[in-house]
Amino acid sequence: MSKDYYKTLEVNKDATNDDLKKAYRKLALKYHPDRNPDDKQAEDNFKEINEAYACLSDTQKRAHYDQFGSEEGAGAGGFGGGFGDFSGNFGDIFGSVFGDIFGDARGRGRTRATQGHDLRYDLDLTLNEAVFGTEKDIIIPGLEDCKTCTGTGAKPGTSPITCKTCQGTGQTKMQQGFFTIARTCHSCRGAGQIISDPCTACNGQGKVRKERKVNLKVPAGVDTGIRLKMTGEGEAGTHGGPHGDLYVVLDVKPHPFFKRKDNDLHCEVPISFVQASLGGEIEVPTIDGNAHIKIPAGTPSGRVFHLRSKGVPKLGSYGRGDQFVSIFIDVPKKLSTRQKELLKEFAEISGDDVAKGFMDKIKDIFHQHQDQKEAK
């Protein structure tokens, strides 16, 4: 015996048809490719149990197998060895055992209710809108049920008729030995129905292209890349099926002053040399308005001041990020004669020889360092 089909199905040789069906159902669920993606061993096991069940569930082939230890010659068409071969009669064997667990492969036609397609909409936001949230009316193009025919595609007062070729299933079948091959019905093109008198408003399609206005509420704290789902705002379904969903993808445009990092905001604020030297209080912008910062005397360029809770609200949570203000000294490009005189006087008092070049100053620092080292 080349293959032990009873062992493959894990049943005894006196197993009844019900026993075979139960065993096959259990193993097919275990090794079905949908449950074991990219598993070659599970695929091979699935082929073997289908081959075994196809033989033992047929009275004539089972008797031949029990007598000769082989299925060959038991009936026209044989069994085939490939998974692709078995898929042809999937509806006859697998469907008869499982019904609609994995879908009725024998086909119920395409007249069943189907959910509409999901749609995507890209929405640009300013930083202020992202920080505080906003409300937008957006225009969504899509397909909607034709109001004239209420989505049937038939002229008002008429109805689609069931296709006589496929009896409303949308498929025709051809038997090739043991296998049954299902094909899309050529008469109704898989719809299961034929519209003899189509609706003139939608040309029998049952759908018309239409723009809809949708109100979108954007929560505070969103950022670029976030998707907002609007259930039921996608395209209309077919044959009474529900609408699909709408996904709004957000893109927050750069701000001329603030730079965002997660929930924090960063900015740079200029101060004068006098302010940096003497200190004082300056006014800086925040996303909420202006705030005041005290500048200590002798503040160097690049110092960062921290403003708590002046950043972006945390999406779906409590609290806000912070704002970081980086100070830089704004050097004036044009000075009056009097300003130059005062700065030179300041330099002289400070012992800073402005006439020396940069390299000369470096040499002085080097020599001073050497003198201190020798003195030690």
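[next item in queue]
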Amino acid sequence: MQQLEQDIRQFIIDNFLFGKDDIQLSYDDSFIEHGIMDSTSALELIALLEGKYGIKIDDEELDPENFDSINKLVRFINRKTRPMAVGADGE
């Protein structure tokens, strides 16, 4: 398991599941469908991501496709932190 996945999972357990690590939560389980995340917890998660990973999350990115599971969060963070591809001419 990658460190990013572990960090996100631990944050979810500590902050939204109140430390109950015996709850079965797969990496593709929907936070919304399982009642793990609401609008307040989403704001907490955004603050963590922006602070810890140095990313800026725009309003249009606040979508379940980016935030509704551990795997979706990992993919989103990887996209946001990956350096932009530079063309052969340097642009």
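[queue empty]
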